[in-house]
Amino acid sequence: MKQGLSLRVSQHLALTPQLQQSIRLLQLSTLELSQEVDQMLDENPFLELTPDEAPREEFGLAQSDTPVSEGEREMESAPNLIAEFADSAGASGAKDDDVTPLTGSDEPNWDGDGTTELVPDDGEWGTEAKARTNNLGDADDTDATELARTHESLQTHLHRQALRLRLGQEDAAALRFLIESLNDDGYLDEALENLARGLAGDDEEQMEDLMHHFTVALGLLHSLEPAGVGARHLGECLQLQLRAQLDDEPDAQRIPVLRLALRVCALPMDLLARRDVKTLIQRCGGTDAQTREAITLISRLEPKPGRRFVDVERNFVVPDVLVVPAGRKSNTVNPQFRVMLNPEVMPKLRVHDIYASVLRNHRGGGKDGASYAGLQQRLQEARWFIKNIQQRFDTILRVSTAIVERQKSFFTHGELAMRPLVLREIADELGLHESTISRVTTAKYMATPFGTFELKYFFGSGLGTESGGNASSTAVRALIKQFISAESVKKPLSDNQISEMLKEQGIECARRTVAKYREGLKIAPASLRKAL
Fold this sequence. Notes:
extended, 24 helices, 4-stranded mixed beta sheet, alpha+beta
């Protein structure tokens, strides 16, 4: 075997810790960024919040419009390339000799240039992210989410009513057990036999005794408010509500309709869902007018009696970008809009000057060398964190400004004027990678004169038109919604008719596409929109 030396040229991808952090911060939502900032404040003593304004980073937005080099664009797409490389490597199970393996020296390194001097760009940037108080008053620090969670639960509401009933110990325990067995909609999912079997086991005598108490308790549960609670299925829920209305001694003219509605609810629910009036007339024995009135009455009932008691988590969207009109309001030919970052979502950070000064004046050596190097790395980590947050908001502002410029008609006339837009157009205009635009537009929101929208809302595919151009899918959805809102309730528009109406507007949209857009707008088909 002959030994020799050879020279080989190869490429390998290396992501610095600073770039990894920049990419990760870019894709975080406002809430996630706030949590990241809080965590960094706890871990890094050189980082602090400040209410004061400080000089901006010099490398920020003023220099962010410069063209991005090809190498930097490759680095932006690095996470995607890494994922593809990992998939291919996992499939082959073999190591590529041309790829340089990671070593111990590849650990995260925040050393930077090694300096500990305070520089102007170590100052804070942005503002602290605090939610609005919604005019609750300066002295009221109660969180809105906590206020929303103070409402009474279904179980508590029912237990409070059960206390007014004079029951024996066994029946009261059985009623409490059934109340706790209800789901969020107020239904009793489990059969009484299954509940009793789970408690009695193989003891048949105890099983029979439990079934007796559960049956009594179920009747009591059905008498509680809200009406329909404790039902085993939808038909029973509707019947319980109708019986409650009959017990209230309504007008004598309504009694026949209520009884007919009870017979309708006793039939399979698919007949009611299809509004099969002819079959319902045949099986229930009412007139056409009475059957239609009964269906209308049933449609006003609550199919989920426990819905208003559900503790739903309220999610408040705080916009990252604000768009307001600028210039003269009478200038409708070429309207101008001002795009700015929301100061409430930008964390106000800076390097702790006292700690940094102490570290600068104390050049550790000997035994203190390791401690000094660790603190120096923490200081550089704080500086890079501030710069990466600034770069995140600069990129969001650049992308938002480009979106507003492309979709200027939307901010003037609304969603009907939305034009087709894809990520590549913004990426090419700003010299960024598509993956960067995707990260920027995910979970970031823009407040406009027409409401608050996610940045992804302004992107949409195009549909062909007779003139050879393209119409945005968002504008087509808005047009479909407009057609349906203006339709006759007695003769609602079918998907095929809407497709023909779009063709009259010069937009080529197939019936299946109309159905897909209608379902996306959560609009029922024509058969269910028709008034009885």
